[in-house]
Amino acid sequence: MMEQNFKNHTRLVPGFHFVLGILIVTGLLGAIIGIFHALDTTKLNLHNALLILILFVIVALLFWYSRSFAIKAQDRAIRAEENLRYFALTGKLLPSELRMGQIIALRFAPNEEFLSLVDRAVAEKLSGKEIKIAIKNWRGDYHRA
Q1: Cα angle vertex 119, ends 115, 122, to 5°?
Q2: Rounded distance, CA 103 to CA 81, Å?
Q3: Which of 53, 83, 136, 138 is the most exposed place for a label (fewest CB within 10 A)?
Q4: Top-confidence range, 3-7, 15-19, 41-45, 49-53
Q5: Best CA proximity match to 20, nearest among 71, 70, 52, 62
Q6: If you average pLDDT over residues 96-124, what whole number do you get?
Q7: What's the CA angle centered on 105, arms 104 and 111, to 5 degrees?
Q8: CB atoms < 10 A from the CB of 114, how many?
Q9: How is the chain split into domains, by residue range?
């Protein structure tokens, strides 16, 4: 597996993010166009076009929420892992001033850089991107959802 760094750490699954996403958007647009075409014909055609539109709306919502729920669960796991790591290193819980985006970024810092980056993130209100850029020795996360 390729070593992670700031430039390549994002995870995109082409089949899900691009192929399926484009197919859903295309189907949704086609279903909307179908509604307009069905307005000029029988009620049965309009009924079928509405059902197809409803199905594509359902699929689009499933597409969105399936990823959203996985990311939320992953965020909770990251918060717990980084809180445990901070506790193991300091005997205290992570500072409450840290935002979730900062905690997510801190997971890429090795233990040698972690504590100083936590302090900087709190004091300077660093964004997640700024934290990631400040990491010198990237610690990859190869188990993401």
Answers
A1: 135
A2: 10
A3: 136
A4: 49-53
A5: 62
A6: 96
A7: 100
A8: 20
A9: 14-134
